[in-house]
Amino acid sequence: MSSIQTSTFLRRVLVLDAVSCAGMGLLLLTCSGWLAELLSLPAGLLSEAALVLLPFAMLLAFLSTRARLPRFAVWAVIVVNAIWAIDSIVLLFTGWVQPNLLGYLFVAGQGAFVAVIAELEYVGLRKSPTVTPVSA
Fold it and tell me: Per the UniProt record, which residue ranges are transmembrane (predicted)?
């Protein structure tokens, strides 16, 4: 299994990702009814998104404290973020929801933010040197 020495850049991006996921998760969990009315999005969808974001934030916070990480763990975070960003845009064009203009901007904006985070995590992965395993 290939591991990396986590670069400072990657750690900071993982912290940013953790903080943004936790913040959005708490917002969606505590204000889902109000946001549902404001954005014309289903309250259940917002609450369920919060239930995904909060554990993911804890995982990201944990990963950001590690000096070494398995390369696949960082790739998994990047892929999950990319899927979230893509799904955010797909959600707007499938007719599954009918948000108002502010809702469209909210969903597209957070999707774009997550796409940027995924890109920054990829850059951080590339800046993190591979750790050679010690032979016994």
Answer: 12-35, 41-63, 72-95, 101-120
Q: What is the pTM of this model?
A: 0.92
Residue 135 within a domain: no
* pLDDT tens-place string over residues 53-91: 999 999 999 999 999 999 999 999 999 999 999 999 999
Q: Is residue 12 part of a domain?
A: yes
Q: Which helix (H) or strand (E) segment is 16 a member of?
A: helix 8-39
Domain containing residue 33: 3-129
